[in-house]
C-alpha cells in the first residue's frame, strides 16, 4: 500500500488561520492564557500559531512553553525502545492560568494524559484545553477529546499519520503512511 | 534511542563511550527536572530499590535516595551497622533475603573491592556500585565529568590533575577511567607514598610537585586524605601534608591561572584544601553535589528501562 497525501500546504495554512481565530475567540488577548506545545511534535505547531497571533494579528507577546512528557509516559519499561527525552522549556507558571495544550496528532490520548500529569509540576491551571491539528477518530484508549481541531482522519492501526513542517522537513504536508513501508 | 550496553553499573571500565554520552545526555534532562517547582516524575513508580550501605556514607547515600524518590521509586535502606550482618550473615544471604521481598535494583557500597561484581553474578537484580573498597565509584566519576563538561563546555582535550590520596581512592580510579574514555589528559599528584606503583600503566602522568601540576592543569580534582584507611604512616604530619599538597589561596595566586576546583567530599578543611579555596568562586564542590542527583537519576532511569517487566 502506498503513502497517502492527506493535507497540502494551502490546506494546512487555512486550518492554522482558523485555529488561531478560534483561540482568539475564546482567549481574546491571551492575558491570562498560556500555549503549551507538547515536545517534540507539538512545538512547531505552537510556534506557527504564535506567529499568526503575534505577527499577523498583532497581539502582545503570548506566554508559552514547550513541555517534555517523556518521564511521565505510561509505557516506560513496556515497549522495546528506550524513551528518549526532549528539551523542556517551561519558564512559566501555569498557576490559575488557562492552558492550551497543543500537539500535532491525537491518537490514543496517552501523550495528552501524560501531559496533563506533567503540567501539574508547574502549578494548578484554572482550565486546560486541547488543540490538535489531526484527530485520528475511533482510536482513543482514554476519554480525551480535542477542544480545537484541525481535521479528523480515519486511519487504521497499521497506518501512521505524519505531519511535515517547513521548518523541519522543507514542506508543510500531512501524510498517511503504511507502517510496513517505513 | 540507544540503550546502555550494560545491565548493571559496576564500574566505569565496563561502560562504552556511547554509554557515557547517553548518561550525560539523560542527566542534563534530569537536571532540568530537579530545578522545576515540583521535582518529581513518575517514571520508576513500579520499581523497588534497596540501598545497601556496608560502609559509611552521607552524600552518596542521600543523593541516591533523593534520586530514587524524585523518580517515584519505592526505596528501602539498609546499613550494615544495625543489621544481621553483625550476626554473621553472608552477603549473598543478606541480599537474597532482601530480594525475596521483590526488589528490582540494588545500590551497594561495600568495603571489599569487587563486591558489586560478585553480587551481580549471584543475584537476580540490577546492581549499582556506590563504591567498592579502593576499586571504583562510578557514579562519582560520572558526576565529576558531567560537572566539568557543564562548566567548561567541552571536556575532550582538557587537562585534569587529581591531587592527594590516590592510593586509597576509588574516586581516583573511576575518574581516571572516565576521563581517559572522554579524551582528557590526566595527571595524578601527591606524595609518592600515596600514589600506587603501576599507575602510569593507565596512560597517565605522575607529578610530585604541586605547583607544576597546577600550572599544567585546567581542572584540579582534590581528593580527601582517607585517614580511616591508613594502616601505616604515609606522611609525617597533617601540617606537613597541608604545606606540601594543600590547595590554598596562596598556591593558586602563585600559579595565577583560571582553575576549576573540585572535591568529591567530605572535605578536611585545612588539610587538602583551605577554607578560602573551598568557598571560592572557582570551586564547584556544591555544583558537583547537585549534579550528583541528576546523574544518579539518569543511571537509575536507564538501568530500570532494561529490567524485564
Features:
heterodimer; A: 182 residues; alpha/beta; Rossmann fold; 5-stranded parallel β-sheet; 8 strands; B: 309 residues
Could you please describe the fold and organization of this structure?
- The complex is a heterodimer of chains A (182) and B (309).
- Chain A is of the alpha/beta class.
- Chain A has helices at 9-27, 41-56, 110-119, 166-169, and strands at residues 4-7, 33-38, 63-67, 98-106, 127-136, 148-153, 159-164, 173-178.
- A five-stranded parallel beta sheet of chain A has the order 3-2-4-5-6, with helices on both faces.
- In chain A, α1 (9-27) crosses α2 (41-56).
- The longest helix of chain A has 19 residues, at 9-27.
- Chain A is globular, with a radius of gyration of 16 Å.
- The model of chain A has no long low-confidence stretch (mean pLDDT 90).
- Chain B has 309 residues and is α/β, with parallel strands linked by helices.
- Chain B folds into two domains: 12-136 and 289-304, Rossmann fold (3-Layer(aba) Sandwich), CATH 3.40.50.1370; 138-286, Aspartate/ornithine carbamoyltransferase (Rossmann fold), CATH 3.40.50.1370.
- The longest helix of chain B has 20 residues, at 285-304.
- Chain B is globular, with a radius of gyration of 19 Å.
- Chain B starts with 16 loop residues before the first helix and ends in a 5-residue tail after the last helix.
- The mean pLDDT of chain B is 92.
